[in-house]
Amino acid sequence: MVKIFDMAILSISRNSLLLLFLLASALARPSAKLETRAVTDASLKAVSTAFSKAGIVPGVIPVFKPTGILDVVFTVPTTQKAVNATPGTNLTTQQTANEPNFVLTVSDTTIASNAEFVVALFDPDAPTPQNTTFAQFRHLLGAGYRWNADTGVLTNTTAALTEFVPPAPPPKSDPHRYLVLIYEQSEDFACKVPSILNASTPRTNFNMTAFSDALGLGAPFAGTFFFTGPSEST
Ligand SMILES: *[C@@H]1O[C@H](CO)[C@@H](O)[C@H](O)[C@H]1NC(C)=O
Ligand SMILES: *[C@@H]1O[C@H](CO)[C@@H](O)[C@H](O)[C@H]1NC(C)=O
Ligand SMILES: *[C@@H]1O[C@H](CO)[C@@H](O)[C@H](O)[C@H]1NC(C)=O
Ligand SMILES: *[C@@H]1O[C@H](CO)[C@@H](O)[C@H](O)[C@H]1NC(C)=O
Ligand SMILES: *[C@@H]1O[C@H](CO)[C@@H](O)[C@H](O)[C@H]1NC(C)=O
């Protein structure tokens, strides 16, 4: 007993403290993605249930069987705090003002490490959930996203097809649903896309299903959605 106790005392040497510090730093690093959820049958089911409950499946996209978990992390301009758009979260226009980070958690890291992804953020409730004359409204569309296996963050390697504009539902509108979907990029995406969508394609009356069909994207790989209502000052 005494021997073990002595060893414990001895082990708190300067080197050990340094080692402990290094270990703590290493452990602290993944906490950058601390709010992300693991990929389990339950977490995937929770996402698809939320999509059905919000009428997104089949109202906006015909099917959604996610195999990855997506976290959409906004940085609030005034506080620099991170907010995570997990499925069905209510966010304000202030919270969603900046282009978010896309954090993907997958079980098959080999596929994710070798794939490129298409990221779409769009509004099926424009100008209001009751009158969808302008829907879908494209808030962001980009391809060539690569997955960082350490952080889970998806980073674009090419310019956006449609640059991010923040949610801005009109005054008095009910909150809109904002969908973020991740697709595995098809082989011929880059050569096919210019004739289908380019700088002159209006953001309004977009059809994600028609777009993904035309480019052979198949069903989305991961996704989330959040609600945002008009800014309180309007
Ligand atoms: C989000 O806001 C709606 C009202 O627009 C409310 O019914 C719902 O409970 C809120 N959800 C959460 C998780 O706070
Ligand atoms: C729907 O919204 C559009 C655009 O604001 C408007 O022109 C149109 O009159 C609205 N339709 C109805 C039925 O309210
Ligand atoms: C990635 O997207 C950002 C924001 O749209 C853009 O400024 C940047 O140039 C893009 N990166 C590349 C490599 O195109
Ligand atoms: C740009 O996209 C539109 C569809 O929005 C398409 O009709 C048009 O042919 C495309 N332009 C080019 C130069 O491919
Ligand atoms: C969107 O495209 C799909 C597939 O082409 C089609 O079935 C659907 O009716 C379209 N939705 C709208 C609102 O045009």
Automatic annotation (TrEMBL):
Stated name of the protein: PEBP-like protein
Biological source species: Mycena venus
Lineage, top ranks: Eukaryota, Fungi, Dikarya, Basidiomycota, Agaricomycotina
SUPFAM superfamilies the UniProt entry points to: PEBP-like
InterPro entries in the cross-refs: PEBP (IPR008914), PEBP-like_sf (IPR036610), PEBP_euk (IPR035810)
One Pfam family per UniProt: PBP
Leader sequence segment: 1-28
Keywords: Signal
Coiled-coil portions: none
